[in-house]
Amino acid sequence: MPKIPTYDVEGRITADVPSTGTIPTISVTENIANAAKPITNFIVNEYVQEKKLEANNKAYKILSDMYINQKDKNGIVVQKGLFTIQSETKENGNPSDAALYHDNSVNSLYNYFKNNKFNNIDNFTKKAIEKKFFSTAGILKTKALEGSRLKQITVSKEIDEDYIANEALVLKDVGPIYIDIYTQKVIDKINSNTNYDEGQKKILIKAYSEFGITTLAESMATSQPFAFKEAVEAGKFDLLSAEQKITLSATADENILQSKFQVLTSALDLPPDAPPSLLTRAYDEISKETFGNNIELQNLYKSLSPQEVIKFKSFTNKKAKEKRNDMQFAILAQNQIIQSEAAQESKKIIDEMDKKNGVYGQQINTLFGKTPEIVEQFKLLNEKVINTKGKSISSFNTNSKIINLIINDEINQVTDKFLLPGETGEGKSIIQRYENGVNLKDLKFLSSIIDSQNKNPDTYSEMKSFFEFIDYYKIPVQGSPVLENIDPGLDERLNNFKYTMYQRYINGIQNGIPAKTLTDPTKKEFIGKDVLNFMPNANKIFKDMIDKIKKNKSFDLKTDAKRLPGESSEDYLIRIGLKK
Length: 580
Known about the structure:
Elements: H1 32-35, H2 37-66, E1 70-71, E2 77-79, H3 82-90, H4 95-116, H5 123-174, H6 179-191, H7 198-223, H8 225-233, H9 242-264, H10 276-287, H11 295-302, H12 306-356, H13 361-368, H14 372-388, H15 396-407, H16 440-455, H17 459-478, H18 490-510, H19 515-518, H20 538-551, H21 557-560, H22 569-576
Antiparallel strand pairs: 1-2
């Protein structure tokens, strides 16, 4: 059998291996610790840097909080921050106190954080915070004390100004004899203020001295012109410029002249309730230059220059006119009071007449006893109301004309006499027109309007919408114009419509509904929704006409029904009783 070949191999335990580096070698003279030292230093430095950064972050976070106020959970400040401390230090006008306040507040702030915020903080961080905090606080203190010094200067200047202003008031009150005292006080006050340099002191002393003197001069030129002129001549106002002296002297001269005018026209100084004849007499005496034969006033008038005489006459006329206006106003005011009271009493007694168909004569005397003419009119009215039992014919057109006079302020009382358009002769009052187009219901309505007009002159403007409403809707209510003069129920129908609408209007106004709404047919509050119910019925009108003709006892249907030859239509209607 064949023999397997065998080989002999020679080798060694170690062999070279391919490599791109060198194998580190350690000297027999060095140990491992020395060899690893650079690595150890690197790790230590990195640790220190990390700790330092960590401490700085904590320090800056706490320092940031130190700038602002610290509050409790309820939002109440328990410790002021650096910003507030600096602001309050600046506002302290005493630098010494401000420095002490700043130091105490800063220490308090640091201790607050030390006791409440430094937990779990290492000593390294605490030292960093302390160093940075007091360094920053020192810088802020410097700026704060600068502000304190500026505040001191401002406060000091304000004190100086207040003191000198008060002294100027004393000077104004006491007069020129206080000028030297005032000036010395100004000098002493300004010199005592160490915040001013010598140049500033000089300027301020001059300015404040002139201020006081000018204030006194202006006051005296107006209120004491004679004394001012004397003080100028005595050299008391030499600090004033020439221009100021000329201006104030002119003012004083004008006030002296006005004083003369007031003395010369003192007779016109009458109370508003004085008889106008006294004003006329006083004005005449001044115009004639007699001045009630007062020699002193005559001599004073003669001392006026021609130009001053012209001014005096203008002054007199103006003053007399103002006094006359005051007197007229007083008279009008008194008349208005009397007028308003009379209107109220008239309304009251007419309401009583309407309820009871008359009143006792004593009641009329009690209300109007001081005015016999009014008493007479009301007694006559009372007699008529009793005789007619409060029933009489009303004319819508007559009432409309009377209303127009009332709202135009031509009738102020139910007893005022007046003429309606087309009337001649002596006028008649509303009361006197009872049974002549005015009935008791009309009297109540008209007296109510007059009373409102006297209490409030704007009554018409408030009632304007109502009157416009009546004027517009009276056309369908009155019916055909052809029947206007022969419709017996026309006035009653129109008056019923007017009074019904008036009551609705007044009720609406009292309930706060605007007048425009009450008279607007598009609104639900419109007072005339049932206006159709007030329109005439043709059958009823014809029946009323026949009934009226029948009541005319002198009318014979067989002989009088026909129109007479040459008889006008108006005369015919009057004859058969359809028209008065």
